Amino acid sequence: MQRAKRIFLIYSLIILGFNLNAQDYGGVGYIDMPSAYMLGDTDIKITHSRDFFHEGTALTYQITPFLMGTFRYSGFHTSWIWDRNIEVKARLLKESVYLPEVAIGIRDIGGTALFGGEYLVASKTFDKLSLSLGMGWGRLSGDGQFTNPLTFISDQFSSRTGSVGLGGRVRGSDFFSGESAGLFGGLSYQLNSLPIELQVEYSSDNFSGDQSTNIEYATQINYGIKWNRDDNTAFTLSRQHGDWGLTADFVTNTRHTPRAYKTNLSNLSSLLPGSISNNLFELLNYDAYRRGLNIIDGEIDEDAIILVISASRINYVEDLVTETMDLLSIHLPENINHARIILLDEGFQLYEIDVDLHEYRLERSISDSSLSGLDVYSSPFWGTRGISDFNLDWSLKFKQQLFDPDNPLRPWLTFGPNITFRMPREWVLLGRYEWSIYDEFDDNRRDASSVLPHVRTELMRYLTEGKTGLDYLYINKRGNLDSTWRYDISFGYLEWMYAGLNIDLLNYNPFSDFAYGISFAKLRQRAFDRGLGFNELDATTFFVSGYWDSPFYDMDIAIHAGQYLAGDKGATIDIRRSFESGWEVGAFATFTDVPFEDFGEGSFDKGLYFTVPWSNYINQNISRRGRNKIRFIQRDGGQYLDGFLGQFWFSMQHADPSYLQ
């Protein structure tokens, strides 16, 4: 059962593919050892490996064309220990006709140093043969084949502590240090007629970090055979350190252009009941709803139409505009030659698009459309007739607690009703109740031991006592104060641990790369059974935030400074790459006035996350995107309300007007 769970972890995270060699430890390389090569820019990859001693899962992302990061979660068959660590690899020299690819890397950059090691490696490809030669430090120094050459520069490189206690701190003084260093190397050969690659390597890892488990390796020569099942998936069977190993690799590119949402351009009104076919607005509203659009307001005169519209099932702004124009070109009389489309995103006024409807009918293209500014259009002409104000649906929801220190995957399958009730004055009631169908939380061995108020470390009590309960139930209102200021007000049971009031104000212009805002929350901790009751813990948070849509590699950067749930004060930096495809990949780190010793294991709050646009992979048009967050360890310092801080701005990035130009 445990093995099946771990294999399932691969598929529960992402739908992936493969196009480069990968090693047991993630990244790009041979079996144990790295090469100098990188993934393709914006590739994300899962590696799952199992050998005679270790089992591990690694998530690798090509952050920029020259920088790659890997989050690794490794377990040991002979003990309960599961180790989490990060590797960073940077390209120093790109391969050319005469020069090799050269890269430098650091493993376990801020962990416990169990897998700590650094390397410098060069790689060169000759047709179907690839060769690599590298020098390793730390765990990769092997038996110490020669004196660390950096000690000739400074005696500081001769000392290596090998451990950082609580973890979480960058162990900079250990990098490339130690009395000795070692060599490693590898080669691979791609067969001509079969999707098979042969691999051989000399490993400099002598498992010195695993001596507590009394491992003895038989040889440092490893070899394997890799089957490239297709361009997207590969499996490697290896003979390593005298025993057998198996590795599976999957990768996909997060920048891929999304599958446009297309419908049959035939007049859908032929399916309408005759009783409403004569009402133009009701006809537009009906067809729009079938296409995944919501018509909010509208007005029509002799030769022009103004339409306020948002999407219910369409992820991308260019698809939204195309669908709207197709809809208008089908239903509007020929004498209406001008359309002004006012786009809303999650309740907020974004921008307007003026289109020559006559020309669009001829070319079915928005290439000649112009963005006309940010005038607010808020007069209600006819509302949302034809769309139900109350929606109730039932759904299964798969959640998972990833990379727990005791267990790599704790699955959680729930079933329950979801409600959306649109009330007067643009208030919306949102809620979900869920029954637990299957979970694996009862074997948890960790108690909340924090010296800080237990704002988050009672997590397992919620997962055991409240595995069935109210997920959330709150009222929300979003809108514009003027052409740039937006507001978001929520009140009720906001998330599974906290209830109260949250207010966000954001100054946002979609034509600017910068935005700023403030947020405030007054909260009470919910009872552990996730009913309607409360614990005694109160919390107040407030933040001042700045946002930058940078021109560097599609990176969005947010900085929040203020007070967190435990009363600690500090700042959070959140960096993510967001793409028109709907993918988001990011990392965050929070530093507050809580000393590392009081924070506990991990030293400060940090983590990774990725958002998957499932509609790119599932043959349905759905706007839901699955977000997975990997927090290295859950502590009480640097915590804030889940799903609110920063999401106001980040949620608008897929509606960037540059996508229309």
Task: Give a verbal description of the structure.
The chain has helices at 2-13, 280-290, 317-331, 357-363, 459-465, 596-599, 647-650; strands at residues 43-50, 54-64, 67-76, 82-93, 101-107, 117-126, 129-138, 146-147, 180-190, 196-202, 221-228, 233-240, 243-253, 293-300, 304-311, 338-345, 348-356, 370-371, 390-404, 407-422, 428-439, 469-480, 485-493, 498-507, 514-526, 534-549, 555-563, 569-578, 584-592, 605-613, 625-631. A hairpin with a 5-residue loop joins strand 27 and strand 28. It has a 13-stranded antiparallel β-sheet. It is globular. With 661 residues, the chain is mainly beta.
Per-chain topology:
Layout: H1 2-13, E1 43-50, E2 54-64, E3 67-76, E4 82-93, E5 101-107, E6 117-126, E7 129-138, E8 146-147, E9 180-190, E10 196-202, E11 221-228, E12 233-240, E13 243-253, H2 280-290, E14 293-300, E15 304-311, H3 317-331, E16 338-345, E17 348-356, H4 357-363, E18 370-371, E19 390-404, E20 407-422, E21 428-439, H5 459-465, E22 469-480, E23 485-493, E24 498-507, E25 514-526, E26 534-549, E27 555-563, E28 569-578, E29 584-592, H6 596-599, E30 605-613, E31 625-631, H7 647-650
Parallel strand pairs: 15-16
Antiparallel strand pairs: 1-2, 1-13, 2-3, 3-4, 4-5, 5-6, 6-7, 7-9, 8-9, 9-10, 10-11, 11-12, 12-13, 14-15, 16-17, 17-18, 19-20, 20-21, 21-22, 22-23, 23-24, 24-25, 25-26, 26-27, 27-28, 28-29, 29-30, 30-31
Helix pairs in contact: 2-3, 3-4
